[in-house]
Write a sequence for this structure.
């Protein structure tokens, strides 16, 4: 389009230099190579715009693509998180897919929260895709308020087992991604009871479905929770456990432990179990910045294609981006996208420092990072949702069409205001840290 | 709060050191001196400190009046959230400013400096109520008006680079999945093509018409 070409000729800087600042030189090169691989591999493409598909067709299409994605994974010749994440976003887009939680929660938690023996047993199977796992924490009655979760895990020393149970209807696990139809294992968060004492929420590996038939195991009631505001390609599910017995070794025991005779060993820092949440919230900040960057890209490019009205009568219709109101709708969001992008990079750097420190049992960064990642997740998700909506409205009527991809993007992004912790609760967690300081 | 400062100096962490630093009582933002990002960041710090210490004092006073800590926190929870947002906004603003300061490519640094100026000024204008409400004369209405003019000027400066700035996000058409945002800008012809894929367009006459509307219209 000549209008866009004209815009590109106005650049006062080398665009790739800025892309290198955002992605790093190496990752930018990988992106280009990965994009070319995907473009030339029809198996990785949608046979049909997904927006025209039913939920069942979307889930099946995503399952087909994720299997193809894993088949061609070696071709990208990288195990870097950002390369794989980009490869996945090119193929799967933003509406979710069958291995979402497996990659972002199940595998990282097996890496971070298991002891050596458990890691040997479970991690290889998860990475090879022999098992598909999710993370089941949120319940019908409680989500963010982890301390009040009702699912129980009672230790039976005689049989060296935990009995995992959903005692009430509100204890039904509800919302976890890929819980409904896809996963055959889950890391279930339950209140730990040993010899009548409650030690608070802990994490347990529970098998949900038979590894051959994929049928739910005895004591397991499981299914999809139905259509949502967005991310409808994800089979968010419900789970009820009826006194399901699991071996003692299936409690994640890197930090807290239960010995064979039923003795509870406390973690070095009460918030260590929050490591997984800090990681996910840090990833979320960067992902949300990308969502806003996508919306700004759509809004600003289209605002240079769309001509409406004349500023000076008789001078011909102008690009809508010449109007100050259009700039005021879009440019602050563009600036925010960059600001959130760099904040996401920074928090991931701090997270890496946290992990190094934890390996030397230094935990002083943990409270700060827990508070900061909570605050960032709350502020960024809210500002990004508002920003996407501004970009969508800047596209006029066509922003209301799924052809713009902005309604689906908004539906995906705004979920971030409640999942991984309700924004208000997270702000209060940050405030508690500030008051303590 | 003053007492808390004395006690907590040594435990100040990376992200909260600003709470215990002395700060100017008046902002030096004005149209007669160069607008340095540091004076804008200082305003973010001021808002965060004031909101944090004000709510801290309110909680302490409520506790002195006999409330439990939990009751006092609940009665102050809206202000606690505002304080957290201000603390987080400061981290984002500081990180942006630090990142821009390290850019070595001169042309990229120039355009990103405009972006950062727009971000910082626009965020402060959005927090203007908080700044002016603090009733400590740190900030004036003229300074808010000046920042608003800085926003308009920054938008004007950014305008020629708007498309290159979004191209730099390097978002592939396949990832964006948007007809409006296509890199080649050929929107309208592709919108028409896209619409024709709608399942409703599989046949010219749909079942709904054949089964219901047609007979109704003929009766």
């Amino acid at each position: 389009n000549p209008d866009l070409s004209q815009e590109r000729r106005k650049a006062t800087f080398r665009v790739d230099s800025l892309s290198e600042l955002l992605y790093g030189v190496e990752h930018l090169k990988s992106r280009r190579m990965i994009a070319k691989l995907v473009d030339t591999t029809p198996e990785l493409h949608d046979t049909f715009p997904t927006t025209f598909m039913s939920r069942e067709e979307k889930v099946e299409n995503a399952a087909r693509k994720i299997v193809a994605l894993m088949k061609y994974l070696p071709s990208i010749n990288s195990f870097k998180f950002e390369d794989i994440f980009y490869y996945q976003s090119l193929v799967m887009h933003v509406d979710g897919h069958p291995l979402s939680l497996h990659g972002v929660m199940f595998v990282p938690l097996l890496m971070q929260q298991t002891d050596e023996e458990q890691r040997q047993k479970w991690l290889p199977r998860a990475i090879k895709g022999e098992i598909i796992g999710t993370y089941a924490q949120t319940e019908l009655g409680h989500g963010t308020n982890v301390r009040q979760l009702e699912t129980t895990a009672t230790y039976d020393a005689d049989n060296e087992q935990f009995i995992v149970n959903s005692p009430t209807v509100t204890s039904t696990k509800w919302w976890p991604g890929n819980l409904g139809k896809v996963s055959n294992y889950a890391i279930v968060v339950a209140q730990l009871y040993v010899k009548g004492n409650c030690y608070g929420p802990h994490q347990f590996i529970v098998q949900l479905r038979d590894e051959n038939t994929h049928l739910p195991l005895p004591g397991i009631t499981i299914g999809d929770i139905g259509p949502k505001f967005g991310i409808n390609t994800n089979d968010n599910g419900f789970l009820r456990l009826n006194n399901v017995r699991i071996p003692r070794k299936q409690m994640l025991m890197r930090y807290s432990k239960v010995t064979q005779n039923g003795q509870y060993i406390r973690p070095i820092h009460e918030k260590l179990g929050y490591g997984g949440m800090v990681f996910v919230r840090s990833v979320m900040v960067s992902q949300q910045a990308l969502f806003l960057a996508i919306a700004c890209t759509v809004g600003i490019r289209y605002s240079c294609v769309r001509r409406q009205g004349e500023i000076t009568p008789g001078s011909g219709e102008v690009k809508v981006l010449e109007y100050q109101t259009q700039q005021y709708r879009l440019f602050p969001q563009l600036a925010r996208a960059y600001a959130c992008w760099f904040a996401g990079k920074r928090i991931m750097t701090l997270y890496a420092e946290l992990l190094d420190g934890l390996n030397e049992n230094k935990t002083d960064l943990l409270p700060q990072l827990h508070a900061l990642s909570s605050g960032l997740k709350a502020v960024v998700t809210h500002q990004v949702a508002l920003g996407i909506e501004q970009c969508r409205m800047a596209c006029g009527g066509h922003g209301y069409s799924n052809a713009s991809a902005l309604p689906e993007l908004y539906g995906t992004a705004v979920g971030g205001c409640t999942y991984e912790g309700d924004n208000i609760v997270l702000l209060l967690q940050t405030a508690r840290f500030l008051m303590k300081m | 709060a003053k007492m808390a400062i004395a006690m907590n100096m040594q435990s100040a962490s990376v992200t909260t050191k600003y709470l215990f630093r002395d700060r100017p009582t008046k902002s030096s933002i004005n149209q007669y001196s160069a607008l340095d990002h540091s004076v804008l960041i200082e305003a973010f710090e001021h808002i965060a400190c004031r909101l944090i210490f004000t709510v801290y004092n309110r909680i302490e006073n409520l506790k002195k009046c006999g409330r439990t800590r939990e009751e006092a926190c609940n009665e102050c929870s809206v202000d606690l959230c505002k304080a957290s947002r201000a603390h987080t906004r400061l981290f984002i603003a500081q990180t942006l400013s630090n990142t821009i300061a390290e850019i070595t490519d001169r042309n990229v640094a120039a355009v990103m400096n405009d972006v950062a100026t727009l971000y910082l000024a626009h965020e402060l204008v959005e927090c203007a109520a908080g700044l002016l409400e603090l009733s400590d004369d740190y900030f004036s209405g003229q300074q808010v008006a000046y920042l608003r003019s800085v926003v308009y000027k920054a938008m004007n400066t950014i305008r020629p680079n708007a498309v290159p700035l979004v191209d730099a996000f390097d978002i592939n058409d396949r990832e964006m999945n948007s007809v409006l945002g296509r890199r080649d800008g050929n929107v309208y012809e592709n919108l028409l093509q896209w619409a024709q894929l709608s399942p409703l367009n599989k046949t010219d006459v749909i079942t709904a018409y054949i089964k219901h509307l047609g007979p109704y219209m003929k009766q």
Summary: Chain A has twelve helices and eleven strands. Chain A touches chain B through 93 residues (CB under 8 Å). Chain A has a mean pLDDT of 94.
